[in-house]
Amino acid sequence: MTDTGGKISTLELARLITAVENSEITVSEACSRAGKAENSFVIGITGPPGVGKSTLLNHLIRDFRATNRTVAVIAVDPTSILSGGALLGDRIRMQTNTGDRGVFIRSMATRGHLGGLTGKTTEVLEVLKSAGFEMLIVETVGVGQTEVEVVRVADAVVAVTSPAHGDEIQMMKAGIFEIADVIVLNKSDYKGAENVMRDLIRCAEGLNRNGWSVPVIRMIAAEQQGITELRESIDSFLAQGGGSIGKRSLKG
Amino acid sequence: MDKKMIRVCVAKPGLDGHDRGAKVLARALKDAGMEVIYTGIRQTPEQVAETCIQEDVNCLLLSLLSGAHNHLFPKITALLSEKGRKDILVLGGGVIPEEDDEFLMKSGIKRVFHTGATTDEIVAYIREQIPS
Amino acid sequence: MDRYKEWDQKTNEKIKKSPERKKTFRNHSGIDVKRLYTPQDNSGMDYERDLGYPGEFPFTRGVQPTMYRGRYWTMRQYAGFGTARESNERYRFLISQGQKGLSVAFDLPTQLGYDSDDPLAEGEVGKVGVAVDSLQDMEVLFDGIDLASISTSMTINASAFVIFGMYLALARKRGISFEKLNGTIQNDILKEYIARGTYIFPPRASMRLITDIFSYCSEQVPNWNTISISGYHIREAGSTAVQEVAFTLADAVAYVESAVKAGLSVDSIAPRLSFFFNAHNDFFEEVAKFRAARRMWARIMKERFKAEDPRSWALRFHTQTAGSTLIAQQKDNNIIRVTLQALAAVLGGTQSLHTNSRDEALSLPTEHSVKIALRTQQIIADESGVCDTVDPLGGSYYVESLTEKIEHEAAAYLNKIDSMGGMLRAIEEGYVQREIQDSAYDFQRSIESGDRAIVGLNTHFEKEDAPADLLKVDPAVEGYQKKNLTELKNGRDNVKAAEALEKVRQAALGEANIMPAVVDAALAYVTLGEICHSLRKEWGEYQERVVL
Asked: In angstroms, what CA-CA distances link C526 with C147, C249, C281, C498, C540?
């Protein structure tokens, strides 16, 4: 049994998700089998590959657990156009304590859907909500225009960048920061980090809305620095109404 | 799209860091059209089993080069049965003497691939065992 | 028209009728190998500038003026399994067979800073090396072996500061001055992140431990090789020869930079840096690789780091034959593979050598197999005549051309890594790992497609029975180690041990060199696991950057 208030086991939940992914059952049927939704939030974490999202996520999961919330993660990776296969490789850093029924992690391949989210992501999120998870995290790769899709499902969006090889410039071009509620500069001990930081702060100022000023968090995820600050920022954004503040014209 | 996708977990239980074989294989399985969850090194049996459950895989490949296979592989298969996933096709590889095959197969490892096995062989075997 | 072109054209006509075995000939690094090499291929080479004389800059021809005419390389077989007692017996056997240096293999829990009774150590105790939990095991491991007269190499990295601390503690207990100690600790954390996987702490803490050891040894243990910067495992992970040279030297540059940043002078630490390379199958490519690495390092040290001591310029290295080339099928053929690889290492000017045993694709080697591997080196040394002159392949058009080519391509990698902000960054970005994995994948495909022939595997195979005479590590080791640990913890002065452990923790949090506190803790019988566990709490653990 999960301790998430849901009524099904981890095994059953995993199978339900497969069934939804393969269109074997409808999402409403899956949800009713999964249980009854608790109060939940969806957090999108986005940023280019290699920026350190998974390390960040691993620490964030631990932090959410430490503040007594259950966490489900969907990590989305691209399907190879050539073979139809996919490598869902970042799992290791998202493994916290095993035997902790309050964490559920599932990798999903895009299976032919261009962009960051699979066609089934929203449906799988619904199932996880019904299973009683409180914090639902969707991790996506890529900096494409379609990444903006995250915003449609998320109550809070975290954009992660780094000072390495012009990540930040690409993300600006793609409009990723425009959808961000919190910006993270990971690897902030790299050369050139100060310049990027200045740019990001300037960029964040332009995003302020209805009393929410978008914070830019300095992070060195590999050394566990900046994680608590991130978690607190997410929490205070959600406490102020989350996705309902300001920018959600895209939503719905 | 809606045909049954083969989902494989490639896992490195134990403490050895020799992941060359596991990674080459993970890539070959992807190129063969499968969805591959690679766990990274130094996984406990509990972590491996938990990953298989949550990811709902149909196949698990265990790679180990430290010699601890007789201890760790059976622990993993036992955990899988305990958690209700006895049906997963579990295969072993790495530095494993042939004389250990019998013991491992009795413990629920369907087949052991030895040094020199090709990725093509392994792909073909998985396809034969899990028709899509 | 020049004679070469004339010959080439004529030959090209001929092969239209009877073609060569392959359309293109390529070595492991993907370098095209020509049909024939002539003086034209060395036209850019300046003898004095690029080759020079053995024992002199740029050391292309070797680091000593007389090389093996003076004395042979150190024959050093990596060994260790089970308990300290069993390994001690194997060491005494090897010494009795004429081996001059020891090379200690530790089990994985020891390498990762776990005591034998840690739940994560289950099933791994004593498997790939000897289990060492405390000074007590060290005492048994070197029982009857004189630390002042043997050189001891220890394959230990993330936990090197503790194991080396125990070794020093043992010397102190026996009243041997640190100045008399000779040997090497591997202590190379960067290649653990890249290729070998036995890391513990995040990069910053790990680099600090390494510079602490550099600094401590330059004052206290002057004849100790403080690091063995290893390309061996990078190659085993599937890199090419060029990548092996490039990434090893890039690691070395990172260590020197970090030491300089910590305030140490280049010439105070560089003479104690040593290297460790792989000897793979492609004979001439390997010989050229060793020569290229030496020349590059000399230039880097002199030109980039402005080192003035010639000992800082000289790249001294240990070699091990490539474990990944051994195959389980027709295992005796591995003896011949190892012979060729060992010969390449000798012709490349190695300072010490480990030859793999024929059964290592199947399990740890038996005593009989180890003896054949050692005899292989002795036959090369005593019978083949290759040791009678220095750098016998120097001046070969082919070898010199390859040496130049490898240097050129490796230098391109070094530039690329510099432009990324250094090796630590390149590793964090996954760049290095990805380059290696791409090569590994290509290598595997080339075997499966039959492009690359492996006798017994994809050509000349035969049906055979499962080999029977394999070494089995007694599973009782784990219980034995656990029992000893319990007794140790009950028998030692626990107040003193706790104080010593706290001092290590304090040193770790502060600026002072950690080594004196570690040696004291070892003397108080604080265990490896206790020290590493306490520092894990302070520093956290490194998380793998998975690159696929």
From this structure: 22, 36, 44, 8, 20
DSSP summary character for residue C370? H
Whether B119 maps to a domain, the answer reads yes
Q: φ and ψ at C16, to 5 degrees?
A: -65, -35
What token pair was written down for C314? 């000289």
How much is the ipTM here?
0.91
CA-to-CA dists, residue B63 to A22, B13, B88, C49, C470, angstroms: 29, 7, 16, 49, 20
**Following DSSP, what letter does each residue of A9-77 receive, concatenated?**
-HHHHHHHHHHHHTTSS-HHHHHHHH----S-EEEEEE--TTSSHHHHHHHHHHHHHHTT--EEEEEEE
Count of Cβ atoms closer than 10 Å to residue A249 Cβ: 7
- Are C95 and C145 in contact by the 8 Å Cβ rule? The answer is yes
The Cα C208–Cα A154 span in angstroms is 42
Cβ-Cβ contacts under 8 Å, A10 against chain B: 50, 53-54, 83
Question: In chain B, what's the furthest Cα-to-Cα distance?
Answer: 42
**What is the extent of the structural domain holding B40?**
7-129
Q: What is the pLDDT of residues C205-252, one digit of tens each?
A: 999 999 999 999 999 999 999 999 999 999 999 999 999 999 999 999
Residue of B127, B119, B116 lying closest to B94 (CA atoms): B116
C386 in reach of chain B (CB within 8 A) = no
Distance CA C143, CA C145 (A): 5
The CATH number that applies at residue C290 is: 3.20.20.240
Find the closest chain C residue to A224 by CA distance: C540
For chain A, list the domains and their CATH numbers: 10-244 (3.40.50.300)
For the stretch C180-205, pLDDT in tens is: 999 999 999 999 999 999 999 999 99
Contact B46, A98 (CB under 8 A): yes
Strand A135-140 vs strand A86-88: parallel, antiparallel, or unpaired?
unpaired
Chain C residues with CB-CB distance to B17 below 8 A: 192, 195-198
